[in-house]
Amino acid sequence: MTGIAGVANTGSDRNWCGHHFAQANWYAFGRLAWDYSLSSDEISEEWIRMTWGNDDRIVSTIKSIMSGSWEAVVNYMTPLGLIFTMDGQHYEPGHEKRNNRYWFADSQGLGYERTRSGTGAVDQYFSPINDRFNNIKTAPEKYISYFHKVDWDHQMKSGNTFWQELCLKYDKGLDYVNTMISLWESLKPLIDDERYQHVLNKLEEQQQHAEKWHNKSTQFFRKFSDYPCDMRSASSSAE
Q: What is the mean pLDDT of residues 173-178?
């Protein structure tokens, strides 16, 4: 037997979603239920053309916004395997409220040992994935602090320390939200005024939240690492 399931939080808005772009998730769910072999690129292009227009500039620009939006949220909210950094309503960071009980940050590093030498939770996964997650050298870096207590000076594949990489993730998340706003603004002549302004307002609201996530998160973890977190200037000088 096979099946597919999803959760839909519908509201009283005219489009049921409260955000024009949230409709894309419903569309993708339906298309994958019908044909699971479709790629995200194929699905997004179908939805864009039917929802926003067939102009190539509209299609390419909106596709760029959509393709990077998920990673941007992960970067400014839960980078490198961090979890539960939000407060009760999920739009604001809740580091003080959570009182460090999910991240176990200290002067040594950040993260929680779910390996065999820790809680053993890694063995909820099947082999060989559990072996990969269990070893800090082979664990995917996007999950690294979920499975391991990572030293601030741990060397990442990029050549950065773990602390530097963490700061860069927060930077990239916020920067991409700003990029999405610029991309959307470039479409003003091609989108009807009502929907254009609706999406712009949502993106500007997201930018405010992303900035809070960026600033509060880096300030909170810096108390433990005791390192600076101005990675934008550092990366620029390195280039």
A: 97
